[in-house]
Each structure stands twice: as C-alpha cells, then as structure tokens.
Amino acid sequence: VDEGRVTVGKVKMYNPAKRFGFVQEIGVKDKDFFFHESKVADGLTVTRGMTVEFETMVDGKGRPSAAILKCSDGKKPSGASQATQQSEMVSMPCFSMSQPFASLLLNGVKTVETRNNDMFMNLPKGSKVLLACGRRDWRDQEAPRRELRKAGYSDEEIDKFSELPRGFRKGDIVGVLTVGETWLSTKDERLGSNLQRKVVSAFDGIGRYCTPIDDAKWFRKGIPQQRGQPGLYKMRVSKNDLITDE
CA 115 to CA 121: how far, in whole Å? Predict the structure, then answer.
C-alpha cells in the first residue's frame, strides 16, 4: 500500500454496531480499504454508498486501511461544519497503560514511568505522546493502593485519582503527556523511597529505564482506537480530538 496517498472512494460497507467498514477506491477494481470509526473525521457520519476522500495507510494487522477525511458527494452530515469535515489528521506516538496507572499518570500522582526496555529512549526530551488506557487492569490492584497509603493518600483520594472520568472507556486514547529524558536507573535508586513514590510502585515493580512525565492532561473525551499495540506505536488522530481538559 502506498501510505499517505489521498484518493476518493465509495463506502462499500459500514457496521455502526461494530464501528468498522470498508471503502472501495473509485476506478480501481477489487481495491478495498478497511476503516475504523476512530479514523473517521470528527463530526462526519459515514453511510453505505457515500463518496469520501480518504488517506491510505496500513493498520496494526498489516491491512490496507483508510483514514476518512471528508465527504466528497456534496452531502453535509447533520450538525457538522465544512471545517469539521475537513479536520486535519496528525500522527503521534502512543503507548498503553493498565488501570489504575493510566489515571494516576494523568492525574499527576504518578510522575515517572518505568520499563525494562528502552521504549522512550529515542524520543527527544519534550516530545508529546498519547496515552491509551489498556483494556485489562493491572494484575495486582492492591499494590499501588499500598504505595499511595504509604505516601499519605486517603482511601477516598486513592479512589478519586485511580478512576477513569465519566464517559471514558478502557481501550480509548485518554490523554496526552510530555516525556522527559530517559535514564537507566541504579538498583539503589529503585530501592529508594523517592523513586518508588514517583512511580507508585515497590522495588519489584520498577523497571530499569525511567522516564519523567510532565504536563499530563486528560482529553475532554476519549478517542476510540481500533486496537492497541505493545510498546510505542504511531496513531493518526484528528486535531479536533486533541482538546485537553484544562
């Protein structure tokens, strides 16, 4: 697939319940592109037979896929302005975290993310990164609560900072943050209460590679994604969706 090519096609099928469909490029026989609801411009209602302008791409499964940019047959979706239909798509790095750590990060309680791989090492300091909430919760839900109690948080505060806001769902991209410079920590650092407090973890849950997190913010609404991926991956999202809850 020639990624990044903008072309025109007709929506061959769309299943609103499952939130995906296929668009066939006009003038090209048997050339179908998969698309997910998360790759449809904000405010655009897709229907079967609609002529659309789309950008070609490859999804996480290696399939030819489409980001639907706008309607091209003169039909305006209800309540959507022309500017909204033509919402610009941007590509940003994204990673996933299980609950409650995704919420703790965006609520400013967790300020350092650690891994046993150098996932963030090649990102320049100050890079903006999307955060997706994992579909599965962390395996030991009591462990972060113990660390937060040690840090002086009440059970009421822990509940508040550990929950997803109303309307957000697991699997969604829920916020954006700024990464600092990743460093390779020492055993003494990982044993220390200072780093454990910032990571919200005891020694055995702290990875060797540590990345400071700054300016973490919730989006006003979650951005659905087709499927999360391990590690750091690229996501194309509408600029209209990148509105944070100040």
Answer: 11
